[in-house]
Fold:
Amino acid sequence: MPRVSSQAQSGRDGEMKPERLPISVIFLTFNSESYIEASLRSVIGWAGELFVVDSGSTDNTLEIVKQYTENVVYHPFENYAQQRNWAQNHLHLSFDWVFHIDADERVTPELWKSLQTFFTSGKHRHIDGLMVARRVVFLGKWLRRGGMYPVYHHRIFRRDCGACEEKLYDQHFVVRGKTTVIDGDLIDLV
Structure:
């Protein structure tokens, strides 16, 4: 994975490319071939590093994933909380900040631009976690009403300040310390 730089890089055509941010992105997968590639593409240009924790896919998930990262590990699935916490505590992560993304989620360009501003401005020195709006898309339609948007979740945080609740259902990440909301959405295809 390319090293993290402090400035955006210029491409061959002079267009500015996003800088790599000091974030370790963790994906959980299991038979995710139909949507994992779009998820990986939404972070590949700016994430400091990508890790995929697979729980035994039998489709083409791993072939797709290996086109984007060599950081692929197998871990048997017990429940989401245990899988997420195992990943955060056992992977050899290079960065203090982690971003947990499901295989069917995508980061919007607005979110990565907000993350770029957050890190280049130095705000990350005084914050322990970020709350991200979850944009639920069901059968191709954005569910904006009925309390479905915006709903904020801790997904990006200092790894020593956060963990997933040990619940079997409807678990969330809990962050100790100062948190704030960041602009941009995490799209969730349900």
Summary: The CA atoms of residues 39 and 106 lie 5 Å apart. The first strand starts at residue 9 and ends at 10. The chain has a mean pLDDT of 90.
